[in-house]
Design goal:
The chain has 16 helices and 25 strands. By secondary structure, it is of the alpha/beta class.
Length: 525
């Protein structure tokens, strides 16, 4: 559909949208998705809330109301305008999860800018790549994270300490952006090479709240959210900013979202909604803690093993809401909650989205057969000036790169990432299935499975295992685990080789970099 007139003075993002014929169809099947032509999502999320309600909390006692967040966002918006920025300029944000990062995000959007929130773990070379792609005009940075920004040659910038010194009581800033003006650039984690910048409109930010959050999560203004994902990860942006603020709820922000930090936060501050990854749920069950305040737990970012779901449910009585989303579509599009959950299944398409399992030629496959997951709805893939748009959008669908099957009841069951399917001696072996079997061994802390080149079988299954403390990685232990896996799943799926490692390579969002392991496996022949 044609785009509405833009409020952007700097038209870089709109100029670099993919050609219209390479867009996925965008569908707005729910009445709540009929947004006005002029829309600023920052205004929608902040200005409707009671200014006296609590909004942002930290473990050390910092407490902001909605009114205070709005005032600080307006101060930042004025500052950006005063130094010469115009609507459409890209502003890089660099900080761990804290209230000033949220204020910066809102300030950028209120003045019509495009927010580029980065992971705190990124280093100078990675930031330099983001700058090359997004052409950053200015940066807002936590003082503790300035050095890598300087090393990347990105300037100018304003530190959070300088922002704290801006005078209070700034006049309201609310640029009348178009609903389809770009609000943010979210970078893929780059697990397979150069990262891609995904472009999301102001209406997209509200759409993820009005679909997954409203229809599956169902939060209320009395909820207190918390979790581990950084706000530079769209899973975190939705779960810790957009979803709570859409209903006037509050968020407990954790600068470090590791289990040893989350557990005391759960006990002391008693949040009700938790967003984190499967590895964290598994670790917290092992460590033990007070989970009694929680009523909603959401998992995404990587497959949720059935064993982890069962362990968490057994320890807490809470059914984890699993979900699959992507940076390209901004947040979760298949999920289930409450009595609709089938442990082991991801769920069904959430209201507003539709999904299918397609063959390589783009035709739907029969239920029960594996194929490529395809999704469409109110959000969709739009890469910034990137030829890989043609690979993600095909046959009128967003192809997520995941292999799935759908059962006769319409539930979608994850099999593997498309590039994690190992073809060995004519058999299709889903790496995550082997990983889940390995994880059931009592000595395994973490693991990843990839295919290694094999002259006889095309590929051979190779496992990389992190052992629990105190366990020695001996050849006998490796053989014991191979035998264990053969007792859990079909013997042909068991790793032919197991290598013990101190840690798995991960992206800044915590995803295992399987391409690194594949390269390592290829060099181990």
């Amino acid at each position: 559909m044609p785009l509405a007139p833009s409020a952007h003075v700097d038209t870089f993002t709109r100029d670099n949208l993919p050609p219209a014929d390479l867009w996925p169809p965008l569908t707005f099947t729910l009445p709540e998705l009929a947004y006005p032509q002029r829309l600023n999502c920052a205004v929608e999320l902040l200005d409707r809330a009671d200014p006296g309600r609590p909004c942002l909390l930290t473990p050390d006692g910092e407490r902001w109301t909605y009114g205070e967040l709005r005032d600080r966002a307006n101060r930042i918006a004025h500052h950006l305008t005063d130094i010469g920025l115009v609507p459409g300029n890209r502003v890089l944000l660099r900080a761990p999860n804290n209230p000033w990062l949220v204020a910066c995000w809102f300030g950028v959007l209120r003045m019509g800018g495009v927010a580029v929130t980065t992971m705190p773990l990124l280093r100078a070379t990675e930031l330099q790549t983001i700058h090359e792609i997004a052409r950053i005009n200015h940066s807002l940075v936590d003082d503790r994270f300035v050095e890598d920004l300087r090393g990347a040659g990105i300037g100018p910038y304003t530190t959070f300490d300088a922002l704290r010194g801006l005078p209070a009581g700034a006049a309201d800033v609310a640029v009348g952006t178009s609903a389809d003006d770009v609000a943010l650039l979210a970078f893929t984690s780059g697990t397979t090479g150069r990262p891609k910048a995904t472009m999301h409109f102001h209406r997209d930010v509200l759409a993820i709240a009005d679909t997954f959050s409203a229809h599956v999560l169902k939060p209320t203004s009395e909820d207190l959210f918390t979790g581990s994902p950084p706000l530079g990860f769209t899973f975190g942006l939705g779960g810790l900013v957009v979803f709570p603020m859409r209903v006037g709820a509050a968020t407990l922000l954790l600068e470090k979202g590791t289990p040893d930090v989350m557990l005391p936060a759960l006990a002391e501050h008693r949040p009700t909604v938790l967003f984190t990854a499967p590895t964290a749920y598994r670790a917290m069950v092992g460590l033990g803690g007070d989970f009694s305040s929680l009523r909603r737990c959401v998992s995404a970012g990587e497959p949720l093993p059935r064993s982890t779901w069962d362990a968490w449910h057994g320890a807490t009585g809470i059914k984890i809401i699993d979900g699959i989303g992507s940076t390209e579509l901004l947040h979760i599009f298949i999920s289930a909650a409450d009595e609709e959950i089938r442990p082991g299944a991801t769920g069904k398409p959430i209201p507003g989205y539709e999904a299918a399992v397609l063959s390589d030629t783009g035709e739907p496959v029969p239920d029960g057969q594996i194929g490529r997951l395809a999704v469409r709805g109110p959000t969709g893939c739009r890469y910034l000036a990137d030829d890989r748009q043609k690979a993600y959008v095909q046959h009128g669908w967003n192809l997520t790169g995941d292999t799935y099957l759908r059962d006769t009841d319409g539930y979608f069951w994850y099999q593997a990432r498309s590039d994690d399917m190992i073809i060995s001696a004519g058999f299709n072996i889903a790496g995550p299935e082997v990983e889940m079997a390995l994880l059931r061994h009592p000595d395994v802390l973490e693991c990843a499975v990839v295919g290694a080149p094999d002259p006889e079988r095309t590929m051979a299954v190779r496992g990389y295992v992190v052992l629990k403390p105190g366990i020695d990685g001996t050849p006998d232990k490796a053989e014991e685990m191979r035998t264990f896996v053969r007792s859990e799943i079909a013997p042909y799926k068991a790793p032919r080789m197991i290598e013990f490692v101190d840690a798995l390579p991960r992206t800044s969002t915590g995803k295992v970099q399987r391409y690194v392991l594949r390269e390592r496996a290829a060099g181990s022949r």
